Amino acid sequence: MEVRQIDPRDEVAFDAWFAVMEATDHERWPDKPGWQRPERRAMALDDDGPQEHRCLSAYADGRVVGIGDLTMYRRENGHAAELTVAVLAPARRQGVGSAVVAEAERLSSAAGRRELGGMDEVPTRTGYEDAAGVFAPGLGFAPAQHMVRRELAVPLDPARFRSLVDDPRSNPPGYSLITFVDRWPDAFIEDRCELGRRMSTDVPMGDQERDEEVWDEARVRHSEASFAAQHRAKVTTAARHDASGRLVSFTEIAVPLGAPESSWQHDTLVMREHRGHGLGFASKVANVAAVLGAYPAVRTISTWNAAENHHMIAVNDAMGFQVVAHSTFWLKKLAAPGS
Ligand SMILES: CC(C)(COP(=O)(O)OP(=O)(O)OC[C@H]1O[C@@H](n2cnc3c(N)ncnc32)[C@H](O)[C@@H]1OP(=O)(O)O)[C@@H](O)C(=O)NCCC(=O)NCCS
Q1: pTM (2 d.p.)
Q2: Cα separation of 210 and 77, whole Å?
Q3: CA of 62 to the centre of ligand 1 (A)
Q4: Percentage of residues in the chain having pLDDT higher than 90
Q5: What is the whole-number distance in angstroms between the Cα of residue 95 and the centre of ligand 1?
């Protein structure tokens, strides 16, 4: 068995890599579409975005039986790398997963990374075996953060939706909600950069260290272009502080255009000085309505929160999100190359 980094421009090699991701996604969530090929291919082909994705394939007898998606940050966080590892069920307990992790550690150390992290995901439904809970600590990884995945089934019952819209928190005085699809309006680009900078350090990160990100218009537009290349739409609702005219919060939902039934909550941030006015609740309710207006095929919205992120979880609970999975972010300090 051999683990190799494949070239995502090689369609045959990429298809074999993606087939393992698709099969293991389906094993975990049999009734969901999972990652889409255009999403993962565009991520792998993005050669100057803030994240580099390296595709690792474990070959046994010429077939790919296990994979890794090794993420390295290109701008900030030069100390960190992250790995997703998955092995086809019939090939498990034969050292394939360990070999993928070993190769990821080697490549990460060679790129000067001092730590390797990775998140598992264990659905709450019965019948899913949590292999990661034994596998990861056995390879020297320690839990750095606990995350919970929640899902909102949509469309909501009309009476329930009405009660969310009529909730006083949905109409915070002194603020106006603005919704847009895909492209952040030029007039508010500076506010987007400030929100991006703050988002990078304001979210609870457990034992992970994260650098503050530098955002400029090029970064915003590059991220929008990457999204389009991944064949995904993004619906955003932002709150404008009427007195200053600045956008002071945002929340975004990604919709895979090839499989819109499962959609994904991305960033949500209310600037510290504007917290406590219901902006998180108001903008999330408005954004769900906007998503359903633009993409009526959406059936679920999934969100991940750090278990300690009580304010965000309170908003999600009030909206009717239900817990569907628990995750651990595993972290390992890497030895310097040659040590
Ligand atoms: C987790 C996963 C990648 C492990 O792949 P693998 O090829 O079976 O891993 P290995 O054969 O290298 O296992 C190494 C050790 O991990 C432990 N381990 C792995 N799977 C285990 C399981 N189901 N139950 C108990 N221990 C397990 C064992 O100690 C094993 O050594 P052993 O077989 O000599 O006892 C695989 O089960 C998988 O793809 N699961 C779904 C995706 C996933 O959860 N990925 C996140 C990983 S953090």
Answers
A1: 0.93
A2: 6
A3: 21
A4: 88
A5: 8
